[in-house]
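Quick start: load a record and inspect it. Here is Family with sequence similarity 49 member A, like:
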Amino acid sequence: LQFPLLAWNAVCPLVAKLKRFYEFSLRLENALRSLLEALTSPPYAPMQHLEREQALAKQFAEILHFTLSFDELKMTNPAIQNDFSYYRRTISRNRLNNQQLEAENEVNNEMANRMSLFYAEATPMLKTLSNATTKFVSENKTLPIEDTTDCLSTMACVCRVMLETPEYRCRFTNTDTMLFCMRVMVGVIILYDHVHPVGAFAKTSKIDMKGCIKVLKEQPSNSVEGLLNALRYTTRHLNDDSTSKQIRALLQ
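Running the structure step on this input writes:
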């Protein structure tokens, strides 16, 4: 009996932490939709919005940076789902025995089910933001979809130019700034790909995907492999017929 008790006592604080991140994802979802509304609403064009509301654009970038950082850590830590599965099995077993453990007051069965769906995603935070962006577009039918996609493609372009232009790169004082720009660039590409009818990889896309992938591949592989994987596995249109063989080859 001692080992299960030790395992339970070890896993409960971890589950409480997972709950906090799950609840934070819901706050991020609301924040993202508010930011999209502020950065796309008439009468200004996306570029004007990004120039006029630089503080909001920076907050949008910070959310994307956190999201990609979190998901990279999640993908490399399978223990997260293993621990959570153990927790769910234990509370299910105790319910069958008409017992309730103190930890269930914080993460009950209903909450555990919602968290399980969240952490089952390969990139849970990114999935949350992608769904939020898609929902924002579908609910704002009077707002042209181009206002949203142009905002995202403009941000991707700004990040790419900063990463590939020597005059900008020399201002980066450390690798963290480079990584910040790369994560934001990949984040807006993925959101664009989820809401644009033909996605980010088509020839008609306003995002220079070849340039974006090239600038990623110029960085040390250990710092960008997670970002390249995000483009490979969390976009919607990479495998469409409209995607050129050259772009697919770049991501292999």
